[in-house]
């Protein structure tokens, strides 16, 4: 014999299971929605980061181009001044150094070796840094006299 309460208990348990199942389905939907929102935020953040990096790269390229154009304009202005004969000596030196640097970039610069210029040793009264100027002076016929030493700053023999 079954008690009259049994079907109600089964129905109650079944209703409870259905309610629990619906509750879990709702939680699953909520978690899916939150996961999608998180993924969308990550995608948007990555897009913003990519756009920012692209803008930064474009800005760097634009700045490089502007800098090159400015240097070219300065070179043209210096060249114009040089043609007119109104060039500042400092500007001339900078222009020559820049031209040399561009022309010989990547190559090793070699200083004049006095031995190759016909000297067995450094001219008397000079150190290794003054050899080139001392050699030039000797070629010009300005020999060192007794008691003189080579002055690198003045680029001549002094007492």
Automatic annotation (TrEMBL):
Residues 34-54, 66-86 are annotated as: Disordered. It comes from the Eukaryota. Residues 66-77 have a biased composition (Acidic residues). This is Uncharacterized protein. It comes from Heterodera trifolii. The lineage of its organism: Eukaryota, Metazoa, Ecdysozoa, Nematoda, Chromadorea.
